Amino acid sequence: MSKKLIIYRSESNFIDVAVKVIEKLYNDSENVLFLCLTEEEVKAYNQKLWTYSQLSFIPSGNIYDMPIEDAAYCHTWFSTNIVFDNHPVVLLHNGINIDTYSDIDKFYKIIDIAIKPKNQDISDILKKYKTAGFNDQKVWIQRGKTWEQGEAI
Q1: I need a surface site. Which of 23, 48, 96, 120 has the fewest CB within 10 A?
Q2: For the chain, which domains are there?
């Protein structure tokens, strides 16, 4: 199975894009590890997922709000570390540098969502992931209310 990298560069709020991606992954039955930088992000993003839509329910959790034994029942697990408590196949994060983490080879898909600064060059990010074996790469860039496919290497 080919390892996949999907990069989203958004002009909108990061978490709004992330929740829409999580909804799609939930529909595809792909468990997610949502990697955060801080404990505050873990709690805030998990809360946002629980309250994002009255039409969808996506089981999610984190070690601060529930026993680790219950992680297996969560589609999305929020953490500041790479953990496999909910058996994730997708790693989702907000532009976190992969050089600082191990075990990314256990994921078959990585999704990197970040707010797009002007003239951002993502070629270095793509090269790092390609070096890590993520050869199937897609880039999506938001322009106004539309999304356009960007350049991948």
Answers
A1: 120
A2: 4-149 (3.40.50.10110)
Residue 148, token pair as written in the block: 């356009």
Quote the CA–CA distance of 138 and 153 in Å, as a whole number: 9
Buried b (16+ CB within 10 A) or exposed e, 123-153: eebbeebbebebeebebebbeeeeeeeeebe
The Cα–Cα gap between 17 and 112 comes to 11
Q: What count of other Cβ atoms lies within 10 Å of the Cβ of residue 105?
A: 10
pLDDT for the residue 117: 63
Give dist(CA 145, CA 50) in Å, integer: 25
User: What is the pTM assigned to this prediction?
Assistant: 0.89
